[in-house]
Design a protein that fits this description.
The chain has two helices and nine strands, in the order E-E-E-H-E-E-E-E-E-E-H. With 161 residues, the chain is mainly β.
Length: 161
């Protein structure tokens, strides 16, 4: 079966920066899966996988704008420590935190720590980077009616939310 809208795709991936440094891989874990045509993965990756089938392997390099986007300078902000969700007692630069916002919790990385405030960066950690994906399609199947209605694939054992 070829990958098309409303198919569930199971795949292994290795994510690297354009210098070849491996950043993440599914090889030692369960393969990833997604519902094709429902914006569950990066649109450029979804386009590259269109029409492929189980056993196919491909490499895709995405510019930053097609991956996690360009870095946005306005995503660096100073916030009161009291606005961090479950703030640890000792906050350090480089830590991943959640910031309470009007839209709900938002992931951020601590840049600088002050007595009452922290400077945080809410850009995705891979924003601004061109990335290379090595993909191996493991399986392609038709989505169930539930998966289509929910807009995402359900893993082994079915629905978990």
């Amino acid at each position: 079966m070829q990958i098309a809208k409303n198919s569930v795709v199971t795949f292994h991936y290795t994510l690297s920066n354009v210098g070849g440094e491996e950043l993440e891989s599914s090889d030692q874990n369960q393969p990833a899966l997604y519902l094709h045509g429902h914006n569950n993965i990066m649109p450029a990756l979804e386009s590259a996988l269109e029409g492929k089938q189980a056993g196919d392997e491909l490499s895709v390099t995405l510019e930053a704008k097609d991956a996690y986007g360009e870095r946005r300078p306005d995503s660096i902000q100073r916030v009161p420590i009291k606005h961090l969700v479950n703030a640890p007692k000792r906050i350090r630069p480089g830590m991943a935190v959640q910031v309470n916002t009007q839209s709900g919790p938002q992931a951020a990385t601590v840049i600088k720590v002050g007595k009452f405030n922290v400077d945080v960066d809410s850009n995705h950690p891979l924003a601004g980077m061109s990335l290379s994906f090595a993909l191996q399609v493991v399986d392609v199947r038709e989505a169930t009616d539930d998966e289509i209605a929910h807009g995402h694939a359900h893993g082994p054992g079915g629905h978990h939310h």
